[in-house]
Amino acid sequence: MAKTYYAEGRQITFLLRVLFVMMAVLLFFYLVPGLHWSIFFLFLIAGVLIAEVMGSMWTGYRRQAASVNKSIVRKITKQSSQKTTTDRGRADARRKLTDAEIMNADIDILSGSDFERLMECYYRENGYLVERIGGPGSRRTA
């Protein structure tokens, strides 16, 4: 299952909700005993709302950081693809390329396994969890 920024934000929201509810119970029953019961519910509601806002802020921050990273990668890829010649690229396609070289290479010169690695890098950059699996003739990439 893919892990997205939204799912990550929901997990953080859930964790913060648990922490804030525990703090409300601790505050109401142990630190300041004798408060009116409506104060307890006020603490609970405020904790849940704060957790929701913080989870939303986390999701927005992660998406913004990812879009900045994507624009930098596109800029670098565009500059390097203009410099790469076809003959040199075909010779480089025979050896195993690093992830940085794959990101900067012209897509037309990539081998099948290098293209799969490029897709793996792309999906990881977009927040997905990528798992490599093997199969007949796939050279253990997915």
Shape descriptor reads: elongated
List low-pLDDT spans.
none
Q: Supply the number of helical segments.
A: 5
Order of SSEs, N→C? HHHHH
Number of DSSP E strands:
0
The first-to-last residue Cα distance is: 15 Å
Beta-strand percentage range: under 5%
List the keywords.
142 residues; 2 domains; 5 helices
Structure described in brief:
The chain has 142 residues and is mainly α. The chain contains five helices and no strands. Helices cover 71% and strands 0% of the residues.
Describe the structure.
- With 142 residues, the chain is mainly α.
- It contains 5 helices and no strands.
- It has helices spanning 5-31, 37-83, 86-92, 99-104, 112-125.
- The longest helix has 47 residues, at 37-83.
- It is elongated, with a radius of gyration of 24 Å.
Give the helix/strand layout.
Elements: H1 5-31, H2 37-83, H3 86-92, H4 99-104, H5 112-125
